[in-house]
Recover the amino acids of this structure.
């Protein structure tokens, strides 16, 4: 069974007298342990799709099945628990609490879930080690660089051992060198932890870290490429750019 599945997914918004059709019938499947990138121009619906996949928003029509749970049949509390126990989120603007240290921000999902932090301290330590911030654990966000803050965000997303990590433009607010380090970190968590990962990005270079790249335009999936057996980032980049040109993206 896929870890994540969308069927005939639609989303529309009312803006004054106008109706915006953000998604117009999306079918999308992610297998366990897969790393998928979703690409598209601004306004193509890619962030909307990610929010629906993670249960942060509800579709106008269609179904999302997350870790075997159909989200449409759950009430708000049930959906919150499914999301809390199965999804880790990484956002473009980090979304760290400024009054908490790096370690406390990483531990926040466990605190919200009422977990015993002493019991989970080895996991918190392991996540800080994974992202290279063990020596910065007591620093607050304003004492960290943008890249370090995003590393905290990644560690926070992974600390609960979620079924899937959803990342919305995780390199969009970073310079190219730091963005590369973040994508390498997400790739490493996929390879070493078996972490299923879905990343929304507009950057073809960020997409080269994925096994599969899905292209979105005007709220619909219009194509995809598989990169699993392609050696070398330059070759992957060439394939992705070629697909974008063919699809006129």
């Amino acid at each position: 069974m896929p870890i994540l599945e969308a069927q005939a997914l639609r989303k529309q918004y009312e803006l004054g007298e106008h109706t915006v059709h953000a998604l117009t019938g999306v079918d999308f499947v992610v297998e366990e342990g897969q790393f998928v990138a979703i690409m598209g121009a601004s306004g193509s619906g890619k962030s909307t799709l990610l929010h629906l996949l993670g249960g942060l928003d509800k579709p106008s029509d269609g179904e999302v099945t997350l870790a075997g749970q159909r989200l449409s049949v759950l009430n708000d509390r049930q959906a919150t628990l499914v999301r809390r126990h199965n999804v880790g989120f990484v956002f473009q603007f980090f979304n760290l609490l400024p009054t908490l240290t790096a370690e406390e921000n990483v531990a926040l999902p466990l605190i919200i879930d009422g977990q015993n932090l002493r019991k989970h301290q080895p996991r918190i330590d392991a996540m800080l080690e994974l992202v290279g911030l063990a020596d910065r654990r007591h620093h607050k966000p304003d004492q960290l660089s943008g890249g370090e803050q995003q590393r905290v965000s990644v560690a926070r997303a992974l600390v609960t051992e979620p079924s899937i990590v959803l990342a919305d433009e995780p390199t969009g607010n970073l310079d190219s060198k730091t963005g590369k380090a973040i994508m390498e970190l997400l790739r490493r968590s996929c390879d070493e932890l078996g972490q299923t990962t879905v990343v929304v990005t507009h950057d073809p270079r960020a997409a080269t870290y994925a096994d599969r790249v899905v292209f979105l335009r005007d709220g619909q999936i219009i194509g995809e490429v598989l990169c699993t057996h392609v050696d070398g980032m330059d070759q992957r980049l060439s394939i992705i750019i070629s697909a974008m040109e063919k699809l006129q993206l």
Summary: The chain has one domain: 4-246. The helical segments are 46-53, 76-86, 102-112, 117-130, 146-158, 176-193, 204-207, 233-246. The mean pLDDT is 92. The longest helix spans residues 176-193.
